[in-house]
Write a structure and sequence with these properties.
It is an enzyme of class 2 (transferase). Helices cover 13% and strands 33% of the residues. By secondary structure, the protein is an alpha+beta fold. The protein has a domain at 29-235 and 248-265: Sandwich (Jelly Rolls). The strands form three sheets. Strands 1, 5, 6, 8, 13, 14, 15 and 17 form an eight-stranded antiparallel beta sheet that branches.
Length: 338
């Protein structure tokens, strides 16, 4: 990380060029990021603005932002590996786990590989103040093949809301509630991108593992955007003035976008903690229950989303928590529950 002695807060918009992604303020890799791990498995392309991360039998790879940020808009265009990708996890996320081991915050995009002929899945998650015991996962299918071309994935994080976007379509919105308290992320975070072996949980609860016969698995990151407020990690301020606004940087969800988000969630959402009656008998405070979403998920899985009990003979009877863990394992949601 870069340190800025003597300054509490540096509100920075790193702008080198305006790219094709709706004229977003795109930066070069070296200006905003440094390698996290992976040695030669991270390769900066000739334009200086695109990066290849690869996973092979030796190691995965990743990079991290130079600075910590308190709120802002963070984005990258990503192309995922093709063919057999079971067990492969590509992550684009914000975290401060290196500074706050027991009370960390986190905002996640996780891309979960699959066996040949099955599609990639995308998962989002939110942690605040070390709330890892409270899972807020959602999972979705794609409406396109994410391995054929670059697609834009973005996170808008403000004091009162978090929005995840795919190609400028909001797919999830979390509004801060009083009941959430510290479970709403509120401390400065770094931005990360990684590719790694998640064989133990990523595909059908670990049923299908990474097959290194198909390695290296290569993912491309381009159109890197760090439009936020860089905070001094030594003398952090509790408040931060946002950087100058750009028309291309969203500040919320428009009415047209909300319609697209509702349509996306009705068609492509495969799991949401808000409707999981095994884990939460009463939805958490930030959950805005949509009857159409609930009906679709109940039809998809009446046990998890409808509260319908499984009936077993005496020899096969298990506790409710055991059944819950099996369902979550099969869905690959056990990354935070194992």
């Amino acid at each position: 990380m870069r340190f800025h002695p003597g300054l509490l807060v540096i509100c920075s918009v790193l702008v080198l060029a305006y790219g094709s992604s709706r004229n977003l303020p795109i930066i070069s890799f070296d200006e905003g990021y440094s390698q996290l791990f992976g040695d030669e498995n991270l390769m900066v392309l000739k334009d200086g603005k695109s990066v290849h991360l690869s996973l092979d039998e030796r190691t995965g790879s990743g990079f991290v932002s130079h600075d910590l940020y308190l709120h802002g808009f963070f984005s990258a265009s990503i192309k995922l590996p093709a063919d057999y990708t079971a067990g492969v996890v590509v992550a684009f996320y914000m975290s401060n786990g290196d500074m706050y081991e027991k009370t960390h915050d986190e905002l996640d995009f996780e891309f979960l590989g699959n066996i040949r002929g099955k599609d990639w899945r995308i998962q989002t998650n939110v942690y605040g103040n070390g709330s890892t015991s409270v899972g807020r996962e959602e999972r979705y299918g794609f409406w396109f093949d994410p391995s054929e071309d670059l697609h834009q994935y973005s996170i808008l994080w403000t004091e009162n809301q978090i929005i995840f976007y795919v190609d400028n379509v909001p797919i999830r919105e979390i509004k801060r509630t009083e009941a959430m308290g510290g479970e709403f992320p509120s401390k400065p975070m770094s931005l990360y991108a990684t590719i790694w072996d998640g064989s133990n949980w990523a595909t059908n609860g670990g049923r299908y593992r990474v097959n290194y016969k198909y390695a290296p698995y290569i993912t491309q990151f381009s159109d890197l955007v760090l439009h936020g407020c860089a905070v001094n990690p030594i003398e952090q301020s509790s408040t931060c003035d946002l950087p100058p606004s750009f028309e291309s940087v969203p500040t919320g969800v428009t009415s047209d976008q909300r319609s697209k988000m509702e349509n996306f969630r009705k068609k492509h959402m495969q799991y949401s903690y808000c409707y999981d009656r095994i884990r939460y008998k009463v939805p958490l405070s930030e959950c805005a229950i949509n009857p159409q979403e609930a009906k679709r998920l109940q039809g998809f899985d009446p046990v998890t989303f409808g509260g319908v009990r499984c009936h077993h003979g005496k020899r096969h009877r298990r506790s409710r928590s055991s059944r819950a863990r099996q369902v979550l394992s099969e869905k690959g949601v056990i990354s935070t529950f194992a």
